[in-house]
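Archive record
______________

***
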Amino acid sequence: MSVNVAAVTILIVDDDPDDRLLIEDAFVDCSIGNPRQYLVDGEQLLDYLNHRGSYTDAARCPTPGLILLDLNMPRKDGREALREIRSDPALRHIPVVVLTTSKADIDIFTSYSDGSNSFISKPAMYTALLDLVRNLSDYWLRTVNLPQRGA
């Protein structure tokens, strides 16, 4: 049974409101209509994934098919959130792409060691962000086979 890629929810976790706005604009400009949810830190991400607090409604907060995760955030950073996701049997199947301003070798190495599926440094130019979003969509929503929920 295949996944309906148009229904795949994408979680974007980033504390910077300008980055969230640019990412949303890029998804819109690339005509990618997948449902998107924006969260500001790892605490919100884990609350969402575990349906806690204001995220208890599973219909409004479906299990994502892809998480775009910033590393440097307040409260719980992306590194901590990634480790928690990968340690939870109910969540570890969700693809996580680290999308961050960092280009540090230690962040790249640690992200992959902690279970990231990809590591991407945020581009400085909007046109490069458009290319990035198109490539993410082509690869994660059209090329790979994503796991079924509950499979």
Q: What stands out?
A: The chain has a mean pLDDT of 92. Residues 126-143 form the longest helix (18 residues). DSSP finds five helices and five strands in the chain.
